[in-house]
C-alpha cells in the first residue's frame, strides 16, 4: 500500500516528523512515506514516538495474530533465542519439526503430506510455482510450450518475479515483464473462462496448476465464490492439474477456521493439492511456507529442488508453535468468527451514509465506501486513534489481531461511524 501520499509532515507530532524526514533520506521510496514512526505496542494497541495511541485494526496486515507482546509468544521467542537462533538447513531443530506437524494436522492434510518452510508469502508462492512446474513436467505435452500456471484476475501472490507473474494488478506487474512463461490469468468467478483455459491445452500447453486466494484480500476482501472454487477443483482433477490455494492472508485462523478452504461457504468443501501460508503463522516473526497434500505432491521436491538460508528458522518456528497453541488454548478461532460478525453487523448498522456494505469472513473484512475516498477515510480514522487500511479506493480493510475483544470492536465501530461522508476522493 502507498501509505501516506496525502499526509504532510506538518500534520505529525515533532518526533514523528523529524524521524520520517530521516527515514526518507535513507530508504528507497517503495512504500511511500510511512504514516507514523511506531515506538511500542501491547495487545491491540500501538503507540507512536510522540506518544499517540492507536487501536490497531490492521495488525501488521493480518500478521500479528496474537496482538502485540503476548506472553506466550514472547516466552517462545526469548527461550528459543537463548537456546539457538539459527542453524542452517544442514541441521534441524525441534520447533521446526513441531510446527510442520501442527500445520499438517490443522490443515487436515492426508497421510504423506509434507511442509516446506520459507520466510514470506511471496517465497511461499515461489515454492508453490516450482512445485507446479515439476508437476507440469510430468504431464503429456506435445506443444513444445511450458505447462501453464493459471491465476485469477485481481489476484495478489507477491512481488518477487515468480509471484509477480501470477499477480494481477497491471501497474505493479507490467513494468517487469516478460515474467515467468506460461503464467496466465482467468477472470475470477468465471467458470466458462477457466474451462476454456483448460480446453486450450492442445495449443497452449497443459495446465500444471491453478492458484487462487479464496478471499482476494489485496483486491478489497473479495471472495471468489464457492461455486467457482468447486468448479476449479473439478477441472483440475479432470485434467491432472494441481489446485493450489494461497492462504497467506486467510490462513492460520484469520477467517475463523485454521484455513479458509475449510470454510464450506468459501470453498464448497474442496480439498486442495497444496496450500501456501505466511503472514499470521508466526504471529509477527517473518515466516511462510507450503503444505503439499498427499505423498505424490509432497515428493515432487527432492534434494536441491528448492531452499533458502533462513527456511525453517528456529525463532520463527518457535513463534509459530506458540501462535498455533495460543490460538487453540484461547479459543481464537471462535473469537475471530464472533468478533468478525460483530464488526460487520456494527458497521452495517452504524448509520454512516459513507458505508454501503461490509464484507469478509472472521477477522478479514472490508467496509465498502459510497465514493472512492479510502485514503482520506483511513487518514481520518488514524487521526482519531484507529488503524484501518485503504486497500482499494472504495474499500477499507480491517484485519485486527485474533485476540481483539468485544469492546475493541465497539470502539472501532464507534470511530468509523463518525468518518465524514464528504471526504475527498483518492
Ligand atoms: C494472498 C497473498 N499472497 C501473498 C502475499 C505476499 O506476501 P509477502 O508480502 O509476505 O511476500 C500476500 C501479501 O499481502 C497476500 O495477501
From TrEMBL:
Highest taxon in the source lineage: Bacteria
Cofactor-binding details, from the entry: Binds 1 pyridoxal phosphate per subunit.
Places the protein is found: Cytoplasm
Keyword check for Nucleotidyltransferase: no
Pathways per UniProt: Amino-acid biosynthesis; L-arginine biosynthesis; N(2)-acetyl-L-ornithine from L-glutamate: step 4/4
One BP term from GO: L-arginine biosynthetic process
Cofactor(s) the protein requires to work: pyridoxal 5'-phosphate
UniProt cross-references to PROSITE patterns, sorted A to Z: AA_TRANSFER_CLASS_3
Pfam families associated with the record: Aminotran_3 (PF00202)
Record's catalysed reaction(s): N(2)-acetyl-L-ornithine + 2-oxoglutarate = N-acetyl-L-glutamate 5-semialdehyde + L-glutamate
Modified residue annotations for N6-(pyridoxal phosphate)lysine: 279
Keywords: Amino-acid biosynthesis, Aminotransferase, Arginine biosynthesis, Cytoplasm, Pyridoxal phosphate, Transferase
Enzyme Commission code(s) on record: 2.6.1.11
Additional free-text comment from the UniProt record: May also have succinyldiaminopimelate aminotransferase activity, thus carrying out the corresponding step in lysine biosynthesis.
Assembly mode: Homodimer.
Entry similarity comment: Belongs to the class-III pyridoxal-phosphate-dependent aminotransferase family. ArgD subfamily.
PANTHER family (alphabetical): ACETYLORNITHINE AMINOTRANSFERASE, MITOCHONDRIAL, AMINOTRANSFERASE CLASS III
The protein's name: Acetylornithine aminotransferase
Gene name of the encoded protein: argD
